[in-house]
UniProtKB/TrEMBL annotation:
Residues 121-261 form the SIS domain. Pfam families: HTH_6 (PF01418), SIS (PF01380). Keywords: DNA-binding, Transcription, Transcription regulation. One of its GO terms (biological process) is carbohydrate derivative metabolic process. This is Putative HTH-type transcriptional regulator YbbH. One of its GO terms (molecular function) is DNA-binding transcription factor activity. It comes from Neomoorella glycerini.
Length: 291
């Protein structure tokens, strides 16, 4: 996962001294990439030990790894462009920033995608007796997309949205079942509580988050990560959502390939339902595929 994205995700959860280091890094990643550990600690008015703790929290082996990652990621930010929306931005610059951030979210996600884990997730889903998808808030968007795709593949799956129903569902899981958690922060309290119940039943836990050091990621048997960061406090979770949808699309196509010929019939049946549910269009009465 990208260091800048990961840092922005956990910044508000950090102890004050580590948050001070994070603030300095996010203010000017390129400059921090050139600093010694002593210089960064001094700039943040903290200790070198605190800087090391932050590196470990970001799953970096050393301060050198932090500098290398910051130097690489800083190259993706156009000169003079801020990380968020400012009061002086005109409509064109806002649209450009949204476009750049979403494209970068997809590129970073694909570059950091753990292919072996993605394959293992696909195989685990196919082997499961049933899949319970867990999400709340904005993470319901990618969860709903995944739910529809699993249905089209003929899998037995559920997406309870009420917190109590989520706990009911996972409490009835058995070994061989899957609880699949979706969360941007990876720290959604209701989802963590549901996963604790799922763990006690022997179900396999899969997660899709944007934070590799989160409680949900640590609880999971298999973890997938989207790499994204906030554009501004007003845009909410759009980059998180885009990166997770990218992973779900990749997983869906992988499952089609791995599942043939098993998935051919359910895909055909659901495609016919989609076709029958659409009004005829001005192209000979046929719906364009994917519409």
């Amino acid at each position: 996962m990208a260091v800048i994205a990961g840092l922005q995700l956990i910044l508000e959860q950090l102890p004050p001294s580590e948050r001070a280091v994070g603030d300095v890094i996010l203010h000017d990643p390129a400059a921090c990439a050139r600093m010694t550990i002593a210089e960064l600690a001094s700039k943040a008015q903290t200790s070198k030990t605190t800087v090391i703790r932050l590196c470990q929290r970001l799953n970096l082996k050393s301060y050198r790894d932090l500098r290398l990652n910051l130097a690489r990621e800083a190259l993706t930010i156009p000169p003079g462009q801020s990380y968020g929306i400012t009061e002086t931005d005109d409509p064109q610059s806002i649209i450009r920033k949204v476009q750049d951030k979403e494209i970068n979210a997809i590129q970073t996600t694909l570059a950091g995608m753990d292919i072996p884990t993605l394959v293992q997730v696909a195989e685990t889903l196919f082997q499961s007796r049933q899949v319970t998808l867990l999400a709340s808030g904005g993470a319901l968007v990618p969860a709903l997309d995944a739910y529809h795709k699993l249905l089209r593949l003929g899998l037995n799956c559920h997406l309870p949205q009420d917190q109590r129903e989520q706990k009911f569902r996972v409490a009835l899981c058995q070994p061989g079942d899957v609880a699949w958690a979706f969360s941007f922060s990876g720290a959604s309290k209701s989802i963590v509580e549901a996963l604790k119940i799922a763990r006690a039943t022997g179900a396999t836990i899969i997660s899709l988050t944007n934070n590799s050091s989160s409680p949900i990621a640590r609880m999971s048997d298999l973890s997938l990560y989207g790499a994204a960061s906030y554009l501004s406090e007003f845009t909410g979770t759009m980059e998180f959502r885009v990166s997770q949808l990218c992973i779900i699309d990749s997983l869906f196509l992988l499952m089609i390939k791995l599942g043939l010929p098993r998935v051919h019939q359910p895909l055909k049946i659901t495609e016919e339902i989609i076709d029958n549910d659409c009004f005829p269009l001005n192209n000979g009465g046929k719906r364009k595929k994917g519409k």
